[in-house]
Amino acid sequence: MKIKIGMSQTDITPPARVLLQGQVYTRISETVESPLTAQVFAVQSADAVLVLCACDVASVSRAFCDRVRELVRQRCPDLAPESIVISATHTHTGPVFWRTVNPHFLASKYLPPQAAFSEDITIPEDVWQVDRCFPYLAEKASGAICAAWEGRRPAAVSPAFGRAVTGHCRRAVYDDGSAQMYGRTDTVNFRELEDGNDSGIELLYIFTEDQKPLGVLVNVACPSQCVESKHFISSDFWGKARDRIKARLGDDFIVVGLCSAAGDQSPRDLVRRSLTHRRRTDPDMYGLEGASELGARIAGVVLDKLPAAQAAPPADSGILKHQVMTVDFPLRRVTLAERDAARQKLADYIAQSGKQTFDARDMAALRLYSGILERFEEQQQRMFFTAEIHVARLGDIAFATNPFELFLDFGNQIRAQSEAAQTFLIQLACDAGRYLPTEKAERGSHYSAYVFSGYTGHEGGALLVRKTVDTIRQQFITQNDEGARP
Fold first, then answer.
1. Contact by Cβ (8 Å): 64, 137
2. d(Cα 476, Cα 396) in Å, to the nearest integer?
3. pLDDT by residue (tens digit) across 38-97?
């Protein structure tokens, strides 16, 4: 069956200053360092459709996805909304556009009524907040999707694979079994990084019928967080990669950035980064130098692998299947003893501090206890976190989504057991499921593995792996190709 493909890219940068998503303090953008974009890949074969829309934002909510799909339904009634996957590259220099508070750190009802946050600031009237950013981004994303859909035409794809170091494990483990995100490693108590990294880059090039390059899907196991603490809007290393690629292939060449399983990954090498010793290592991965470095690495792979992919020759037909599942993930729970301990520790911290106004460090510590109490109440009302999971097959390639900041081990398990010749994993898709840590991370604890850092825990991760692998297997083993392997 012949395939039709449409691709588009749209600037989604708000035309105003915005609150920036991420961190434990308020940041307001001062300028635009690089534009934010929505990049879309739409493929159709007979009645089967898959649409991937990747946005340069920290995360997307279910409500945002629902709104974008509703706008698409109004404009493109022949495109089934359920075929659309919306994901985030996880830049921390994009707008706060779907929630008004950071649920990990801000004060909760468990703090004394007189408690105040010293980082609170007055937001100027010219700064766009959720009420303006949400509809603006939804309008832009839906427009990009419709443009790709309406522009679909006979095309061909050619998969490839490359390597470049982008992410590193950001959780350090110590001799007492504890772990810390971004923990110090220049101490005798450091034992290991909790997990490895994934240097593999999955690539899917798209060509016109006459083999003109249209674009590429790039799947990287690293969130775009080099400039996460800055006060400007930026697409981080994805913007740098696109600039380099377009400089060679033209502005019409579209780069769809897809973040793979990377919940415990970041651009920073914790072993070579030292607070007390000067070490020869990467450029500053807390700044634009680091973003440029990673962008150059990704662009280098894309440009290097293109000639061979173009000579393959590309395939203009193949099986396309797309399945959408609703999965109930068990809510990670708090025991009675944990609730009581958290309640006491919260009271002790407040009493010993003698404060009524708390800074960001205080609020992070207080959130550790209040988050446990909030989860205890939440689990009395519901038992599951319900998520939308997409699994698709295109030829011998599989695509699998999840809404989490998924720890690398789970991604490795899916790829290792997949029936596909190549598996694209897309995290932070169709909702914001927060972190999904492994069992060893839960034992080590700390941020990203705290019970309130995510909705589900390692049992949910195992369920995701089983559901995803089984669905891929069913898509690759049918009545028509029973027992076949790619």
1. yes
2. 8
3. 999 999 999 999 999 999 999 999 999 999 999 999 999 999 999 999 999 999 999 999
Residue 235 inside a domain? The answer is yes
Neighbours of 180 (CB within 10 A): 21
Low-confidence ranges of the chain (pLDDT < 70): 100-108, 112-120, 274-277, 478-486
Are 484 and 299 contacting, i.e. CB atoms less than 8 angstroms apart? no
Whole-angstrom distance, CA of residue 279 vs CA of residue 282 = 9
Q: Are strands 4-11 and 37-45 parallel, antiparallel or unpaired?
A: antiparallel
CA dist 255 → 218, 231, 382 (Å):
7, 25, 40
Report if residue 132 sits inside a domain.
Answer: yes
Task: Give the domain range for residue 56.
Answer: 4-332+380-476
Over residues 160-200, the pLDDT tens digits come to: 999 999 999 999 999 999 999 999 999 999 999 999 999 99
Which of 231, 235, 242 has its CA nearest to residue 298?
242
Cβ-contact 220, 166 below 8 angstroms: yes
The domain total for the chain is 1
CA–CA gap between residue 313 and residue 305 (Å, rounded): 13
CA dist 287 and 264 (Å) reads: 20
